[in-house]
Task: structure prediction
Amino acid sequence: MDLRIDAEDLNSCVQCGLCLPHCPTYRVTGDEALSPRGRIRLMREVQDHGAPITSEIRHAFDTCVQCRGCEPACPSGVPYGRLIESTRETLTGAGELSARPQRLAFSVLAYPRLLRLGSTLLAVAVRLRLAPKRLGLPRDLPLRRARHVASGDDVYLFTGCVMDAWQRDVHHAGQRVMEAAGFGVTPTADLAPCCGALHTHAGLGPDARSRAEATIAALSVDGDRRPIVVDSAGCGAAMKEYGHLLGTAEAESFAQRVVDIQEWLADHLHRLPAVSPLDVCVAVQDPCHLRHVQGVHAATRTVLAPFVHRLIELDDDGLCCGAGGAYSVLHPGIAGDVRARKVDAIDQVSPDLVASANPGCSMHLAGAGVETVHPMELIDRALHGEG
Ligand code: SF4
Ligand code: SF4
Result:
């Protein structure tokens, strides 16, 4: 079967295995087929040698978290993210991988009012203990959300779909921080309700492209060139890759406007007032899509350092926490084992707080009793005297 992987990309892997220690699914299973090298070998067998799609092959591709921890570890520069995205999209399109439940669940993401209504009902169900535990829903899903109010038109703050329904307070904190630096902020709110990151992750290529096109159109009216600041690592990573996803000059130009909020603030830190740091020791959890895909995890330290007593590094080489979009719901066993390694690394340094810049990671870690805060919430508290 043609997996529609670029032959040069596929052949760039020399099967050295240096990526193996950086792969969470290999670390918890020890199974070569669940490593980057093993998965690439299986891609070659299918695409180059016509191997049939067996349940073992399906399992290998299906259980990749798509954390892309293997990419920076690879001395040959193998673009693993592109390989697995093509593979999953082709197999999903051919019915070899099932994405029907995800497609159904994600169809609501483009309808923000419906999503908010459903989220409020879920919040009630969680409080009444009616929601199944295996869904891993946060206990503090909001029943109400303060409205978005634009304060100017210097920058957009991309607010997205699930994060806006479940963690809108983080957007408000990010907006207050940007305003404290002297910028007028336009939250994108219902203007651009979903970037398509979850669809890309699930192998739903056509849906992802349609969400990307809608987002570009909504935020580029009349030649609008404002920066688009993103406070969710997963959304930011997906939007920075629109050029590859859509293959157009317009998408490439749009992607150039996308900037992670920590990355943006690191460039404008001098505009924030000097304040007393919060009296807390904070461990930084690097979301994979910030560290491995966007490569801007250093900015999190830069912007947090002036506002907290001490930053603590985890001794786990930035290994994935196992969240991976809907991965933790679809593969709770492996996701739980991967998370246990992260929780061990956190326990070893005994922080007062854990900072995470991705809603999926924070919700997944909360399922193991680790409460996280977004870096912007900490900075906002320090700036506004809520120590
Ligand atoms: S992906 Fe890179 S590091 Fe991993 S086996 Fe292939 S060449 Fe080696
Ligand atoms: S993306 Fe993550 S889970 Fe998938 S092969 Fe690479 S390191 Fe392993």
Summary: The pocket of iron/sulfur cluster (ligand 1) is lined by residues 13-19, 36-37, 40, 70, 74, 76, 78 (CB under 6 Å). The first strand starts at residue 155 and ends at 158. The chain is about 50% helix and 10% strand.
